Amino acid sequence: MSPAKDAEQLASEAADAVRGILAQAEEKAAEIIREAEAKAASVRDMAEAEAASIRERGENEARAQIEAAKRALDELGGSLAAAASSALPKSDPEPAGPQEDPVGAPEAPTSPPAEGGLSGGANGDDAGERLVAMKLAVEGKDRASIEAELTEKFGSADRSALLDDVLSRVPR
Predict the structure, then answer these.
(1) Average pLDDT for the chain
(2) Of the residues 23, 48, 64, which one is the last residue of a structural domain?
(3) Which DSSP letter does residue 140 get?
(4) For the range 157-161, what are the long-range contacts, defined as Cβ-Cβ under 8 Å and sequence gap of 24 or more?
(5) What does the pLDDT look like over 56-110, one tens digit per residue?
(6) What pTM does this model have?
(7) Angle formed at CA 14 by CA 11 and CA 20, multiple of 5 degrees
(8) 156 φ, ψ (degrees, to nearest 5)
(9) Residue 43 has pLDDT above 90, yes or no
(10) What is the tally of structural domains in the chain?
(11) Cα–Cα distance measured from residue 164 to residue 88, given in angstroms and rounded to the nearest whole number
C-alpha cells in the first residue's frame, strides 16, 4: 500500500469513527431529552392534580362559609323582624291612666322612636335594607346590583354609607 492510500484509509476510518461517535452522542442526547420530557410531564401532571385538589378544597370551604353566612343572615333576619315588629307602635290604643309594672318586668323605653321610625328609615326600612344588602353581598353581588335591587324594593335614596358599611364587612 502506498502512503497516500494509507492516509486516505486512515482519514476514512477516522471519519467513520467520528460519525459513529456523533451518532452515539445524538442517540444519547435524544434519550436524555425523552427522559427529561417524560419527567417534566410527570411533574406537571402531579402539580395539576395537586392544584385541582387545593382548588376543590378551597371551593368547598368557601361554599361552607357562604352557607354559614346565609344561615346567620336568615337568623338575623328573623331577629330583626321580631325586633322591628316589637318596636312598631301597636294599633290598639292603651288604656289611659297609670299602670303598675309587674315585679321584675323591664321598664319600657321612655324616649320616643327616632324620627322616621327605626334607624332613620320608615318602619325599620333601614334594617331591612341593610339585611337585604348583606344577603346580596354574601351571595357575591356587586355594589351596582345591590343598589339596584335596594332601589327596586325600597325606593330611591342615598345608600352610599350603608353600602360602604355592608361591603366592608363581607370578605371578597
Answers:
(1) 79
(2) 64
(3) T
(4) 159/129, 159/133
(5) 999 898 888 888 888 888 777 777 666 666 665 555 555 555 555 445 444 444 4
(6) 0.35
(7) 140
(8) -80, 140
(9) yes
(10) 2
(11) 27
